[in-house]
Amino acid sequence: MRFTLRILLSIILLCSAIDALAAPIAADFPPGLQVPAGAQPGPQFDADKATSAYLALLSPEQRTRSDAYFEGGYWLQLWGFLYGLAVAAIFMLTGLSRRIRDLAQRVSPRPWLYTLIYSVLWVVAMFALALPLGVYTDFIREHQYGLSEQPFGGWMEDQLKGLGVGLVLAPIAISGVYAAVRRAGARWWIWAAGLVFVFNLVVTMIAPVFIAPLFNKYEPLPEGPIRTSVLSLARGNGIPTEHVGWFDASKQTTRISANVSGLWGTARVSLNDNLLNKTSLPEIKAVLGHEMGHYVLNHPLRLTIYLSLVYLVGLALLHLAMDRALARWGGRLKLGDRADPAALPLAIAILSVFQLFATPVVNNIIRQAENEADAYGLNAAREPYGFAMSAMRLSTYRKISPGPVEEMLFYDHPSGYDRVHRSMTWLKENPLPELAAEAAGSSK
Predict the structure, then answer these.
(1) Of residues 329, 18, 51, the one with CA closest to residue 143
(2) pLDDT tens digits, residue range 69-89?
(3) What pTM was computed for the model?
């Protein structure tokens, strides 16, 4: 563990001047609803022309910056994958993983307990080794693209809070999987997939109540038009909650967001302060209509089931690959059988290869749910201008017009173009009189 502590201390000292490297730049639209002239309702309204008018709101500089940020994310997926393999190699080839296991076994010879202790130490070591890449991807790069104004000290505090949550949850999950490995033999991967499903459901229920408030301050949404509209939308769509609040996400990010989180009795509606401060009521209603669509369409449970099935395939392949890897290299690396926790970094490396190739599948599963929520939200909120404008705000950091192959491989949400065009098509088919007045008051 001295090796890990030295790494962590060196990283903290190295990052003491990082704030100076992360100069923010402006990237957002001004507050309020915008309706371009080409999107005004009328007898000659054309959804394609209206979509083009909205896309023209994005300046060439904004579009270049957005494309660069999003396309850079493709490379970050590759570098993150390679970096993860390098971290696994450090664990295995230096004997760090084996030494952690030996230390845990000296504390207790009981498999469940030394696996739990190993998991705790592994989480700490992983945090230290993964931190350099995280500093660049989640702090420096976010500031360089104007997506965060958080000082490095606050960012690091959030990372340590995340480490604390990981130290509670990850050892439980890892110990559960290794218990399945020890007791179920060659069928361990089936039981492990079931445990992953249950664990994800539990986290979905407890996260909005116990985890999210660790990172942000949650307050009840004050009385007023926004709260009235949100509660009306919730009641009209059968969402059983009076928990409507806001949280101070602006200390971490400039992005707008909201969510309807939790399952069953833990459901609550939350809006971040960027959404409240930077947008209009039609945009807020459009965003909340989308989020309520996720809840009403039971996406949290459905996605947990679908993604657990993907993990079932991954764990089955891991079972086959792990046994072969241990048979070939286990003796050289001084590892035992598949129940040896010291082989966890090797298992993570193998599983990461599967995850890389499964990314398009996962993205398509999630994007299908997002498409359904978009359609639901438009019909629930009936705010096509708000929906289009919120899509444009997201397009300041999401490439707005990807190619079809690019969208299939890398997008887990519909593109900005698709969302604006969907909203303008909805408007053409639903020419509501009140929307004409809304457009007249918000025209550019």
Answers:
(1) 18
(2) 999 999 999 999 999 999 999
(3) 0.89
